[in-house]
Structures are given as structure tokens and as C-alpha cells.
Design goal:
By secondary structure, the chain is an all-alpha fold. It has 2 domains: about 1-100; about 105-184, no CATH class. The protein is built from 11 helices and no strands. It is globular.
């Protein structure tokens, strides 16, 4: 186990390329790679920004099944996203969260408020805003009154200049809200 940790630490101490990412994804794949995923996750908590950023970036390249391993850590990831001051790491954590499941039982009003604030913030990068919009929808979809609040927030967003990616995210979420409203 120490050898695995050392190998991963060496890989993550520098810049990760496609080859290193593919190696990590295959090394951590499936249930057999869960110990390696646990080590990587612990490394994502590192005080070394380069190491923690690289590990989070590697996690974003995992297959859906392997990212699903993070599902029990969803609340911890939410707490990390809300506390993270490094914009790049926050974006990566939000990316991971966007690949996890959200249900009625796991609703967190503090995270919804965080997402609504970030999606409306003009100082946040467009990627963080788009991910926050998608995560806000993932939480609101269970509650009609929250969906209408989300639609109002989207209306406010559209009054400011938007990137093509953010416009696309808004269009996608509006379509999903419309489909939910039709199915009720």
C-alpha cells in the first residue's frame, strides 16, 4: 500500500498529461480499485494545491461507475465546494458533484443557496456558474415551489451578458423544467 501511495504522490506532484490520467483511471477502475480511489481521495485533501487539484482533475476523468464511488462522500464534497477558495478546485468539485445523484432525502438548503448565489454571481467564472445552475436544478426538481424560484433566478441571469456555454446550460435547464411541469 505504501508503494501505491508513493507512486500516486509522484504522479500527482507534477503536471498530469493524458497518459497519466489514463493510467490512474485504469488503475482505479472497478471495485478492485477502491483502495486506490480511497488513497486518491485522501490526497485530494492535501494542503498542496497542485496535488489536490491534480487528484480532483483525475477524478473528473473516471468512468461513471467509478465516480459513483464518491456518492457516499457527497455531503463531504458539498461542504468542500462551499468552503473552497481556490476557484479551479471548486469547479472540479462541482463537476464531480454534477455526476452524482441527488434525491429528496439528500436535499440541503445551504447547498441550494450556495448554487443560486454562485450561478447569479457575475464575478464567478462561467464554468462555476453553469455547474451551479445544473446542481441547483438537480436539487429543485423535487419541489415545484423551488423550481419556480430557480426559473426566477434564471430570468435574472439572462439580464446580463452570458457566454455561449452558460446560454446553453440555461436553455437545457429551461427545457428540463418544462418537461417536469408537463409531467405533473
Amino acid at each position: 500500500m505504501v508503494s501505491i501511495e508513493k507512486d500516486m504522490a509522484e504522479v500527482h506532484a507534477g503536471r498530469l498529461g493524458k497518459r497519466e490520467i489514463l493510467y490512474l483511471c485504469s488503475f482505479c477502475s472497478g471495485a478492485a480499485g477502491n483502495d486506490a480511489k480511497e488513497i486518491l481521495y485522501a490526497m485530494s485533501l492535501s494542503g498542496d494545491t497542485r496535488v489536490s487539484y491534480n487528484v480532483l482533475w483525475a477524478f473528473t476523468h473516471f468512468r461513471r461507475d467509478d465516480v459513483g464511488w464518491l456518492q457516499p462522500k457527497r455531503d463531504e464534497l458539498i461542504d468542500r465546494a462551499m468552503a473552497e477558495s481556490h476557484v479551479g478546485k471548486r469547479r472540479l468539485i462541482l463537476t464531480l458533484l454534477s455526476r452524482l445523484d441527488f434525491d429528496v432525502a439528500g436535499f440541503r438548503s445551504d447547498f441550494l443557496d450556495f448554487c443560486l448565489t454562485k450561478m447569479l454571481s457575475q464575478v464567478e467564472p462561467y464554468g462555476v456558474r453553469a455547474l451551479s445552475l445544473r446542481l441547483a436544478f438537480a436539487q429543485c426538481r423535487w419541489y415545484p415551489e423551488l423550481l419556480s424560484e430557480l426559473e426566477s433566478a434564471i430570468d435574472m441571469m439572462e439580464s446580463a451578458p452570458l457566454s455561449p456555454g452558460l446560454k446553453s446550460a440555461i436553455k437545457d435547464i429551461r427545457c428540463r423544467v418544462s418537461q417536469l411541469n408537463k409531467s405533473k
